[in-house]
């Protein structure tokens, strides 16, 4: 595959920059070059190059074991890495304490101390985090069905997640890293979670990196997608550019051989029709055999993360 497009705009001229904490304005919030990670003899992340600028909602997608959690752990300094990694202008490993002032990381949103009341958690957070606003947390809690006096052990899983997000979103940070935040939630709770995240935390300057398996559901929320397969980045693209790069064609079954000869990265069925997905435009005579459609993120995911032996047309 062609080198992945950076999910970022280039940084502005150095002369126009001002310093914000550990970084210059206009610099990406995350910058990785040749990022790798190995556990024993197992290579888990391999040569990742990407940037996440300010104001983005980035989906981190990949099959089970693709390396999503490992990447997030490296980003927040919980594990070592090879290559260059800068998060908010800091080295996650060497400057973790400073980094955590401006970064929220939630490995599992549904875990809070069962004995605590919501009001006690707010008091606790106010004591722990210098950028936490108790007033903001109380405001955010009003969006949920959780009362200030409710104890965590009396809440449903969906309510715990809402409470956790209210607490975290009350931190004035620049980057939020969420590892499968809606795991185990029903569709209404997932919707409520993402609505609160987008409405209450994303302000055009902050960025969020979310890993999830619910690819269809997050497609409309994301500005960019990073896709991992077996520790490698197989896609790094703003959603707005998917249409320019990938071409999906629905076609008559009679055209199947001619379409297949143009090496689609995926052949599938869409609304009862045969369809093919191409990385780059197929020749005009092939395009004329079908109708162009918008490729979905799910189709891209299937095409780019299937085991190579099942998908020999994908260049590795
Ligand atoms: N501490 C560890 N020691 C050894 N191997 C590990 C460790 N943590 C993760 N791995 C391996 O690294 C690979 C990537 O795991 P990781 O948890 O990052 O994947 P993931 O994409 O988050 O998966 P999932 O979607 O299932 O949560 C897997 O093969 C896993 O077995």
UniProtKB/TrEMBL annotation:
Gene3D superfamilies per the UniProt record, alphabetical: P-loop containing nucleotide triphosphate hydrolases (3.40.50.300)
InterPro entries: AAA+_ATPase (IPR003593), ABC_transporter-like_ATP-bd (IPR003439), ABC_Transporter_VariousFunc (IPR051782), P-loop_NTPase (IPR027417)
Region (Disordered): 1-22
Keyword Cytoplasm listed: no
Keywords: ATP-binding, Cell membrane, Membrane, Nucleotide-binding, Transport
Cell membrane listed as a keyword: yes
Annotated ranges, domain ABC transporter: 30-255
Positions with biased composition (Low complexity): 1-16
GO molecular function: ATP binding; ATP hydrolysis activity
Domain of life: Bacteria
Protein name stated in the entry: ABC transporter ATP-binding protein
Natural source organism: Ideonella dechloratans
